Structures are given as C-alpha cells and as structure tokens.
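USER:
Working in pairs, take the chain set out below, taking as long as you need, and write a paragraph about the fold.
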Amino acid sequence: MRDDEISCFETTPVVNRLTVNQCGRQACTEGYSFGPAARTHYLIHFVLAGKGYYICDKIKYTLHEGEGFVIFPGKTTFYQADSETPWSYVWFGFSGDDAETIVRACNFSDTSLIFRSSAPARLKYSSLRLMESFQRTPRNQYEVLASFYECIANIYTSRLPLRPDMQLPLEQIYYQKAVQYVQEHFSSNISVASMASFIGIDRSYLYKLFMRSGNISPQQFIISYRLKIAAYLIKEENMSITEAAFTCGFQSLSLFFRHFKKHYGVSPSVFKSNRTTSDMENQQDFTEWPFISKKVVDVAAP
C-alpha cells in the first residue's frame, strides 16, 4: 500500500459495548479536503506529518504533526490539507455503549476537540498496529480492541488536566518524562536511544533538553542515577557490590568500578568499608534537579 492511498476498513459490530468501525491512513495532496459531512460514530484523526485545518461549529483549528482532532457523531465538520505542506494522518472511528464514556474520559467535549500527543511516536506505532489488525484475515476483534485501547491510552494521558502549578511548557514535560523513564527502568538495559523513543523525540533534542534543564547529558544522568542507588544499596542495605551493580543496570563489574570511583573518588569496596552515606552530601543531589520525582530518590537519600 502506497502512502498516498486512502486505507479504510469497515467492520460489523461483535461487541455492543464498543466497536471499532473503521480505520485508515492517508497522505493528502495539496489542498485535499473532506466535507462538509456528518458521521454516525466518533472519529479521531492524528497528524503524522505536515499541517492542515479542521472546522467544527464555525471554529477553525490549525493542526500540525503530533496533534489530532475528534469528530462527534452528528456534527457537520470540514477539514483540509495545507496547500504547501499537506498533512498525512491516521484515523479510527468507533461506536457503542462505551464510546461516549471513553471520549469524555479523555476530556473531549463540544468545545474541546483538539489534542497534542505527549508521545507521538508511540501513538503512531499504536495506530499502525490498529490498521494491521484490521487488515489481518481472519480478523481477531480482541486484537483490534487491544490496539484501539493502546491509542486511547496515549490520548488519555495527553489530555489529563494539569493542576495550575503543573502547567509546564512542553519541553519541561518531555524532560520530566525522560527522568521518570530512568527512575522506572534504571535496573534494565536502557539507553539514550530507548529513552528518546519512549518520549517520542530524537536523541539530539533529548540531549539539549537535559543540558538546559539539568546541565548534564542523558547518558551521564543514567549513570549518575544508577550510582546513587547503588551507593545506597551497598552502604545502607549491606548488599554485595556485585549484586548492587547488576541490580542497578550495569552490565559489567569493571564498568561499574570505573564509574563509581570517578563519581565518588574511591572504589566501591573502600566506600562500603569506610564511608557513610552522609559523606555523599558534597555530591550533587538528584532532588536539586528540576522536576525530578522523589519516588525512588527518597529511598536512597542520606
């Protein structure tokens, strides 16, 4: 299937509570438009590239890559690709008893129809998986619904209302998600590439985020975070040096020893025998870095 082809698949309801009615992908030509038209089910579009605009109730919304819009049943809408950088998008339609509940849970309403994905690469991947499950013969409706809910989970997270004190710029939200990723996966074989992929941004942009927000590279952040947890486990939990190293995601003891001595000035064995965690006070504390959650750090704090 070429990118410039429209792909649309219909399915008959098998579960009354929720049915995915259609999905597709289109790379639009300059100025391509659809409507005015009304739909009989909910429809969500997500922009993969380019830009265009969407009109509903005489309000015009301009959308770019990583953004999307919802169409409510019975609403007459119109949307059109930009004449210079036309958009490409994926879409999926759904109906059933649970459809309205899902839309409302994502904080969509007649006056709130636009969203910006906080992890666009993941939403793109989930959307394409949804299309693949539609194309598969015979079609597994539960696989279709699973892929659909992956898409909704991404949109739901992106649409969560923030408290007034958490109205952060998008750049800071990306940084916060990167820090959270390390906190939750530091014991695994993670990398800067996997961190960037999780957020949905490229590695060079991720590097700039960390240097601006914490004055540290993403790779050094991963290493430093692992070392702080390892130091706590060695000293306060009396864990063996080998066990602490592998628990914190280091793939070799020699690498762990080298990083530990560079960071703390002594080897792990000397640290275990002679130092107290209060001696780490002269080291940079993670809680001083902007937006970092204390969920894990509090455990390791001196």
Observations:
- The first helix runs from residue 99 to 105.
- The first strand starts at residue 9 and ends at 10.
